[in-house]
Amino acid sequence: MTPTFALTRRARAVNGGPAQEPGLPAPSAVRGNSCSQDMRFAERPEDVALARALTRRFLEQTHPGHPDEQEAAVLVVSELVTNAIRHAHGSGTLTLVAHTGGLDVTVTDPSAQLPHARTPDTENGTGGWG
């Protein structure tokens, strides 16, 4: 199974559940063939690690037996949450929705500006096209 990633940036209200583990919200409601998980994060680098842990746990529960795809999703989440913290300067929300066709990943932040493509900066270590 190859997960699909719908990477969107949109404003929407999200309610997190009580924590099952320190810093990780409880799984959200299961609706039909989908299950979702929300996590609010602050402008703290340690919240990136929490987002990765939440994504791993969520995918172990919803898509077990696919470690390569799980790690790809964890990498995507790590990059998106890092970029939101680094460039939007504020809190945000990570939403994961697992469904039969794959995984939707949404990261929201408080910025009114939409992201834009930039020329890669390979000399200063800031990476690719993000």
From TrEMBL:
Residues 41-130 form the Histidine kinase/HSP90-like ATPase domain. Residues 107-130 are annotated as: Disordered. Signal peptide: none annotated. Keywords: Kinase, Serine/threonine-protein kinase, Transferase. InterPro entries: Anti-sigma-factor_SerPK, HATPase_C_sf, HATPase_dom. Pfam families: HATPase_c_2. It comes from the Bacteria. This is Histidine kinase/HSP90-like ATPase domain-containing protein. It comes from Streptomyces kronopolitis. The lineage of its organism: Bacteria, Bacillati, Actinomycetota, Actinomycetes, Kitasatosporales.
